[in-house]
TrEMBL record:
Residues 352-363 have a biased composition (Low complexity). It comes from Aspergillus wentii DTO 134E9. Keywords: Signal. PANTHER family: INTRADIOL RING-CLEAVAGE DIOXYGENASES DOMAIN-CONTAINING PROTEIN-RELATED (PTHR34315:SF1), PTHR34315. This is Intradiol ring-cleavage dioxygenases domain-containing protein. The lineage of its organism: Eukaryota, Fungi, Dikarya, Ascomycota, Pezizomycotina. CDD domains: intradiol_dioxygenase_like.
Amino acid sequence: MRLSFFWAFALLSGIAVAHPGHDHSHEIAQRRAFMANSKRTDLSHCVSKLKARGIESRNIARRSAMISSKQQKRDLDRVLDTNHNETNLRYTPTTAETTVFSSNTGCALTPESTQGPYYITGEHVRRNLIEDQQGVNLYMDLQVIDMNTCDPVPDVWLEVWSCNATGVYSGVVAAANGDGTDDLANIDTTWLRGIQRTNADGVVQFDTLFPGHYTDRATHMHVLIHHNATELHNQTLGSGNSTRVMHVGQAFFDQSLISAVEATYPYTENTQVLTENADDSILSTEASLGADPVMEYAYIGGSVMDGIFAWLSFGINVTKNYEVPASGSYWEDGGRPEDNSEWTVTPPETGSSNSSSAASSGI
């Protein structure tokens, strides 16, 4: 009897990393230098303080309630009795919730120099990111902790985005995107992108889909934490062509979970080459340096098709404040590519010529 774990959450920097065919040697060297100078690589030093403040017990109650709500009358005993992975953690249906849902792991603090491809400003503040997309449901519980004080980080805007089952990012028309430059209407799409503000315990929850893959990169998801952002009247964050952030990175997943998802439709329709974790130069470097970028997960039902619940507490340096350029922005009348972005091409007749900026127009 095993509970599914291993949603690897590595905050690996990435605009250079994420482009298909890019030389990753500079990124690897940067990663090694960072790890060599890092005094803390996880949240183990925060465990006692989080427990003393009652944050640990609230984490357990919240995570238990979330997975229960998503099971929709499914039998939790059957979930825990299903062999979901190879972690050799032999939980039984009677295992205490304090064991199953506690924050017994924490993400390593990792370099945050670049953000990976296809960051779009002006996205929606929302929990459900799926829209019309198909795939395996992924319910995420993410908690942000100050690495220096071990306190939760409340009232910050956490943004996530990922490609769909066939390796395409919304909001972008680019040669390196999964559908190339064939679908010009993709510039106006917003699926699998969203933002939420952390609560008093530093927590956000998203309902999204498990990411697909694209050539030269292992399956991953992007995470960004804004610096002093403001929600606009139409539930978006407007940042123009760049964003001030205190954290940005990427999330990775256990290979056995990826394989299970990739065997299902519509992931089977993805014609791009699948790069496994072992062949991803950035992720393999992370492991070789001794970091433990692992997040826990559990199947909602008896198979991956029933959905996945994943959770993690991870640490950031709240003193960081730097600029992240965007590939485009979402406006009142649709998407607009950034002229200086190497990741986008400008589709004809985007309809954005008369728009004011997202911030000034309330978008």
